[in-house]
Amino acid sequence: MEEEEAREVVIDNDLKKKIKETVKKILKRSSLLEITEIKAREEASAELDLDLSRDPYNLIIREAVDTFIEKAIMTIETEMGKLHTQIVDDVDGGGTEKTTKTTTKKKTKKKKKVEEAESSAA
Asked: Which pTM value belongs to this model?
């Protein structure tokens, strides 16, 4: 039992922050389609010259990866929403310069017709 307690690793906040920043930096420069938690841990281990495969390092790595992925997903969802809106606008005719000119001409013609109808009625 004493042996287990002696092997317990205590991490200060500075080291924890450094590990998270290193993992974030690795994730930023990596392809999100190819990077895994294991690869990120191995790269961070090499950069920091620490064996990050043990607890509590594992938990810190997992937390950093999960946080990064959650933020990436939120950003992707936001951008997809913007993209969807742009596509819908383009389909409806509000997205291209040519369509905008045509729409403006149609509105001008309608306005003239309304004005002519109002002046004929008066």
From this structure: 0.61
